[in-house]
Prior knowledge:
Distance between the termini: 28 Å
Number of domains: 1
Structural class: mainly alpha
Number of helices: 6
Largest sheet: none
Low-confidence stretches: none
Amino acid sequence: xxxxxxxxxxxxxxxxxxxxxxxxxxxxxxxxxxxxxxxxxxxxxxxxxxxxxxxxxxxxxxxxxxxxxxxxxxxxxxxxxxxxxxxxxxxxxxxxxxxxxxxxxxxxxxxxxxxxxxxxxxxxxxxxxxxxxxxxxxxxxxxxxxxxxxxxxxxxxxx
Length: 159
């Protein structure tokens, strides 16, 4: 499951990239013919801004949870290096996607070869970002509920 978890983000990005290549070859869809692409870019900037804000809050939550049993056990486990790598990958993919989205907002007005290349790269990065964002969200849910001492105490009482 760990290897699948690690390869899933680039795999989703690749699937989105190949889907757009297929749509281009089959139906001629490009950045200039995709209706509403400008609106998609605007919405993506807004969503990315929200997610980057969430990451900032999430990192603050991790700092405040440093002495919890969950973080203590995680620091002793074989997965102790996975959390920082996931968080860095999530944040980097968010910022890269944001930067490329802003660049695409300007370049969609020009029919340049580099715009076509960046159009496909954008879909790859969106797939990467969405998958990392989902994984980070799942991690934050796990951290919140698995580190709740009251829940663990109730769980122990039921057994």
